[in-house]
Amino acid sequence: xxxxxxxxxxxxxxxxxxxxxxxxxxxxxxxxxxxxxxxxxxxxxxxxxxxxxxxxxxxxxxxxxxxxxxxxxxxxxxxxxxxxxxxxxxxxxxxxxxxxxxxxxxxxxxxxxxxxxxxxxxxxxxxxxxxxxxxxxxxxxxxxxxxxxxxxxxxxxxxxxxxxxxxxxxxxxxxxxxxxxxxxxxxxxxxxxxxxxxxxxxxxxxxxxxxxxxxxxxxxxxxxxxxxxxxxxxxxxxxxxxxxxxxxxxxxxxxxxxxxxxxxxxxxxxxxxxxxxxxxxxxxxxxxxxxxxxxxxxxxxx
Length: 302
Fold this sequence. Notes:
7-stranded mixed beta sheet; two-stranded antiparallel sheet; 9 helices; about 35% helix; elongated
């Protein structure tokens, strides 16, 4: 029977905010156990670890940003430039932003103008992050990954300067999955430590919860190295869990051992006497061990 302390971890993913039927179907495809009618759970999300990290360190100025690279800039929204109709499609919606060193356009395709005016009101200060491109002589950032309001203190807490990158499935974005997993981490209870304290201290390993949090909220690319303490801690726990599971299986097999099989050996003796050679000592011992195993159903499980 599962301890009640672990109940939050085995709750369905649909219990998390923002996980409706469409997102749940995608999570089932991505992380659910591989058997029929399985549903993604909170624990499945916690074990879906990132495969890398994006460094969104602030770029000093627009003039210092490089085409084709990721840039994170603090800018002022200067002007909205709605796209007019054009042959075959509607022109993209553009928003002009600038700092003391230059200007660039944020470009949105199939955009909702009302939403963009709320997200980027003219005259406001915003942190933007995304890949830079050049088109027709203009520096552009198509569909920024992040747009965050800047308060009087220049708070950037809402923008992940080190963003974990997860394996995904079609229709699910990294931003959406990152927000869902952040909720899953809040469900992780404070678990009693099962690793010997001196051994854990000798290896400088974090707690189980600390290791999971560090993997999902990396502080540097080094957190993904095979030798990183958080990664080694989780690998040790996985090996330990496998060994404990094998021990439980062995114990159950001992309790459900088969019936004893004993025979007088008449057929064997008839065969042995007709052999054109004499059995070696090793062959005789092997047959004796087989007889002992068949006679004692617990012997093979020791």
